[in-house]
Amino acid sequence: MGNLNEDFEKSSVGESKNIFNENEVFIKKIIESDYKRGFEILFRMYYSRLCNHANRFVYSKEVSEDIVMEVFKGIWENNLFNKVYGPYKAYLYRSVRNRAITYLKNEVCFDTLNEIHSEKIESHEESPDEIMSTLELANKIELAINSLPFKCKNAFLLSRKEGKKYIEIAEELNITVSAVERLINRALTKLKKVIYFFGFILYYLKPLFE
Amino acid sequence: MNTIKKIIFDFLSGNSTSSQKKILSECLISPKNQILFYEILDEWQMNHEHINIDVDEALQSFLISADSSNNKFKVIQNATVGSNPIKWYAIAVSVFLVFSLFAAFYYFELNSTIYKTGNAEIKTIKLNDGTLVTLNANSKLTIPRFDFSKRVALLEGEAEFKVRHTKDNSHFIVKTNNDFEIEVLGTEFLFYSRNKVNRVLLTKGKIQVNYFSGKHLSMKPGDLVSLEGSTNRIQLTRATQTARYSAWKSHQFYFEGTSLLEFSNLLNEQFGVELICEDSTMYERRLMGYFKAESSDQVAKVLSLLLDVPVEQRGNFLIVHSSKND
């Protein structure tokens, strides 16, 4: 384990010399002189990746984009890129993930968690548990989707990942629209159970949302 | 791949053992390691893109909604305290102001002719009075349509003016968004006005610079006047190499020890692309001489030759790779 810590140190100190990514140094310079231009660069660089990251939690292209948009909007309105301490990258990923979790909470109704976990988007510090258990949730969701019956999984992915309409999916899979509806509902029920159960475990066994 | 990267990749793909998780969790206590963790997470995410996202469209719609929400925000702020009659009055005034602002804006837009250039586009315009204007890329020239008494133009960007002397000796005025304008009878000059930086080079005749609401300055041919928003000081110097300032007209770039960082600003103005160096020390590299490039593709080729590293165009980015990778 000592080795690994050294590994970490080596990669963060040796390879890049600076804890800021090199591009970020450059972008920081731009942000200081022309905020809008710097903002646009960061938006272009990270938007797609962040949407994909959010998608690991919420499994909907639309919602993922909404979440990332909200994060950027908050940054824009409060001039946050001028205030963020540390790399933009970490800040963006953290914010997107927190928002995705908040969305899941509202969607799946972790009522118990709602009261405890108020929005922590601005916070700089995260516990390792917080990072790991939320990311693990994404894996659990993926696992749950992969274990769905073939047709059910197919319909669900077409709808959520590719943003296709029920009619289009019905045509593609050669079934009726109401059958598509049923398949997707079944998938959602299963997912909600997983998320609820996992959230429940997180809440009682690991102090996830301290 | 080093061990820690592999552990994180495995973790993100859901393939790690509980002992690996324990190790990772202990490493993540250090904030420095957390930053590195996000660095690796980003790399992993880059290779695991499952949904297709239209970034350009998203950015457009974002900028539009950001503009409108700015206005909305102000009105709502006033409206929430509406119980007080004086505050209602404030709302009425602010709504009136917003409307009149819009009205003024449209009035101005409708009553003027606008010439605009995009990325890498250079355009020569002949105005009604015979004046020739050559607009550089990403520039905008606004001419009021119904103002016959004076010859006025508003410039955002960079342009060369060849002003025609009229019989009635009427003055030609070039304004900028800053408190800086040029008044002439008939001359030739190069005018640069972007990001609060104004620069005028007079090539022929005589002109007067008006700035800071009421101050004046006369220029002779070969004079270079610049005003930078950051220092807010006006400077008059003799230009040594005038060709440098008009190089853009023939799609040329002149360098006299220009750093790559300075050049990146020029690239952004000219082609709308951002220069990103993988190795940040590259930004300090200085360029000499001149070259011609009509597109960002050509810039990439020339840069790659000059710097002796691969340069690649990816969408709106020119990526300068560090040589050690190849």
Describe this structure in words.
The complex is a heterodimer of chains A (210) and B (326). Chain A is mainly α and 210 residues long. Chain A has 11 helices and no strands. Chain A has helices spanning 2-15, 22-33, 35-58, 61-77, 80-83, 88-108, 111-116, 128-146, 150-160, 166-173, 177-205. In chain A, helix 8 (128-146) packs antiparallel against helix 11 (177-205) and helix 10 (166-173) packs across helix 11 (177-205). The longest helix of chain A has 29 residues, at 177-205. Chain A is elongated, with a radius of gyration of 20 Å. The two termini of chain A are 27 Å apart. The model of chain A is unreliable at 11-19, 111-122 and 204-210 (pLDDT under 50). With 326 residues, chain B is of the alpha+beta class. Helices cover 36% and strands 32% of the residues of chain B. In chain B, the strands form 3 sheets. In chain B, strands 1, 2, 3, 4, 5, 6, 7, 8, 9, 10, 11, 12 and 13 form a 13-stranded mixed beta sheet that branches. In chain B, strands 15-18-17 form a 3-stranded mixed beta sheet. A two-stranded antiparallel sheet of chain B has the order 14-16. In chain B, a hairpin with a 6-residue loop joins strand 4 and strand 5. In chain B, helix 1 (3-12) crosses helix 3 (31-46) and helix 4 (55-79) packs antiparallel against helix 5. The radius of gyration of chain B is 27 Å and the shape is globular. The model of chain B is unreliable at 72-83 (pLDDT under 50). At the A-B interface, helix 1, helix 2, helix 3, helix 4 and helix 6 of A face helix 1, helix 2, helix 3, helix 4 and strand 15 of B.
